[in-house]
Amino acid sequence: MYKQKDVILQQDNKTSIFMKKIQAIVGLLLLMVGQAVAEEHLVMQFNFEDVDGKNVIDPVSGITAKVMNQASVVEMGSRKVLDLGNGTGYLDMTRDAGEVVRNLSDFTISVYYRVDSKASLSGAGYFLWCFSQSAANTQTSAPYTAYRLNAQRMATSTNGWGNEVGMEVGSESAKGHWMHILYRQSGQKGELFLDGKRVAQDTNMPVLKNALTAVPAYNWIGRAPFSSDSYLKQTLVSDFRLYDMALSDAEVASLAAVTEQLEEDYKYSMPGDFSTLQAAVSEAKTFIAGAASDYAPNAIAELQDEVAVAEYEIASARASQTLIDEYVSTLKSLLSAAKATKNYAPKQVFSVTGEHGFVHPGGIVSQADIDRAKQLLADGDTRIKQAWNILCANEYSDANIATWPTEIVIRGGSSGQNYMNCARGAAMAYQHALRWKIGGTRHSYAGTQQKRSQATG
Fold this sequence. Notes:
single chain, alpha+beta, Jelly Rolls, 4 domains, nine-stranded antiparallel sheet, eight-stranded antiparallel sheet, 17 strands
């Protein structure tokens, strides 16, 4: 009797495993079919592989774009990317690109970009792309569709910026790593995706073929369709794509996954010259060895941390020249900051008595704060809504983000430092707790908050 049950259970398990394999194969085939369909609807692509001087040829449409001013196409490992430079550089996709855009109804724009960590996105402008009927739009003149990084805003206008309809995150783009931005529109429903996550949408977006009254002649990557706006600077751009359909969620996720490889290529595709980094490390270590107690301990600790990271990169011998230069710059900045703390004197802390003393406040967010935030969200307060969207878009607040708990925490010394794992884990737990208590997503976030607290505890 029991043997018969065991045989039945084994058969059921085998059937279950077989069905899961079949489902996985079917899912993969559907994804491949979807990707093939998407490629058929790819109508324009600047992947920067076919370059002749200042000319960039689109392998899909045959359009020849022009690299303008300080912009250039540079190699990044096995691929080529557009470097906008630090002035008025941009890519002119020419009027031919406008011919493609003019009659679109449903469409998708996908592009990868990396803003330098020290670049500014403050002020007007900083457009990643635009398709415009005028080079200098005003409040009431000329239709366009465009995306800008200073507010991460996608908008289409039927006549000047005063008539824009759009959506935005409301804060400037992240810097210092590769990002994927995708905008898709089906009918009047527009959706904005950052790194595969939908961050904004609008159901009243103008349809391009109706909004554009003529062929847009001013079609740029890195330049604004407004005369006084700032150009996008210190930014790399890769694989600009335009589809004449709204891609599926699976296709969006597939495109977004490329950012990891782009970042890997940026950092480690072609090893650079480590001599300047070695010199910077030696200078920093010499200073640290001779630094007495009259320098600020936190400044010395920060410098030591960066030295440890730099020494690891030197030992691995994989870092690109761009990454090496970043490390050198950071080391010099931290060394200068540490030297500036000479004659540092710690503040005198009063002794605790019965009359006074420091009482630790504990958690920095009270129940009253949480209740107030929930009420403001319910009331539609725009500032709180923007702040909430920023929190939800932060990767640390994602319930599925990986963490690296450590049994023993190490800070300082020549190797083995891992204290940042605890710092990141604490930040993740805090953000998950906020999303749980304010957003009410208990199932996803209450559990992960508890696990992260225990893991980093």
